[in-house]
Amino acid sequence: MDGLILQILNGLDKGSAYALIALGLTLIFGTLGVVNFGHGALFMIGAFCAVTLQRILNLGFVDEGATSSSVGGFSFGGAQETPYVEHWFGEAVGGTIIDWSVPLAILFAIPVMMLVGIAMERGLIKHFYKRPHADQILVTFGLAIVLQEVVKFYFGANPIPTPAPDAFTGSFDFGVLIGYDPFTIVYPYWRLVYFVFAMVIIAAVFGFLQFTTFGMVVRAGMADRETVGLLGIDIDKRFTIMFAIAACVAGLAGVMYTPINSPNYHMGMDFLVLSFVVVVVGGMGSLPGAVLAGFLLGILESFASMAEVIDIVPGINQIIIYLVAIVILLTRPRGLMGRKGVMEE
């Protein structure tokens, strides 16, 4: 039983990333009707926002008078680099700011991702609204490759470790909460933080669409764009903002995922294909379906990664998501919660 609980926790962790990326993909498809294969690149850019902020906070100057070592009670002076943040705010406060660079990167990533999203939509994607989905896939996939190579050029090909704050580097004894012996079920703090963060973002997106006037207009535009336009509402402007919000969701998912998986230039592609499968399984255009499918497939993939399962069916963990997608699409072609008429023309 403890092994099952651990796999469920692992599944919720993976499912959180799948659900957040799939949510952004579905927002874009539901509002603009665009199949955005560049969405994984937005996840990658968010991760490198965290890397960039970490490097900025660690910029410093060489303190020639700093003492670098001591032997036998004698101190030896030497050059030591002091981050500007520690110099300006003091060692304690500056060190804390550097330590919390990943959570602070959320504030840095929000305006960056909004601008990137608006630039993508206004500069490229708006020209493909009425083009076939195949054209949309090709151009956005090409854009993803370009962005990937740009990141590779500036940051290199190797993964860049981006640690979580020291307060979240340990593991939480989850088993004690449910009556198990100590250290029976332990789980990394940051993975639990990521799950909670995903729940907050998902709830915020659904709350925004459900309870704000802006969100209600957007939902109406998703259902009948022409009628909303005839009412004198600039629905195109609102959809551009929704594209920026979707980009922001993907970017924040990438920011918080950096301590779990060190950022690298191809991480966007790694998640894109899986997340697109999640969208198809949940139902094209269905936001609840994207979230539900993300967590379900994350849990299934986690259970398929158990040694007992792999011993019986080697390699099943690599294909389980695609097998489930085939079964669901054969039995429910619109996905779990897909809308009638979407992608059926």
UniProtKB/TrEMBL annotation:
Cited Pfam families: BPD_transp_2
Keywords, in A-Z order: Amino-acid transport, Cell membrane, Membrane, Transmembrane, Transmembrane helix, Transport
Annotated compartments: Cell membrane
InterPro entries: ABC_transp_permease (IPR001851), BCAA_transport_permease (IPR052157)
Residues spanning the membrane: 16-35, 42-62, 104-125, 192-218, 239-260, 272-297, 309-330
UniProt record similarity statement: Belongs to the binding-protein-dependent transport system permease family. LivHM subfamily.
Main location group: membrane
Protein name: Amino acid/amide ABC transporter membrane protein 1, HAAT family
GO molecular function list: transmembrane transporter activity
GO cellular component terms attached to this protein's record: plasma membrane
Membrane topology: Multi-pass membrane protein
Example of a GO biological process term: amino acid transport
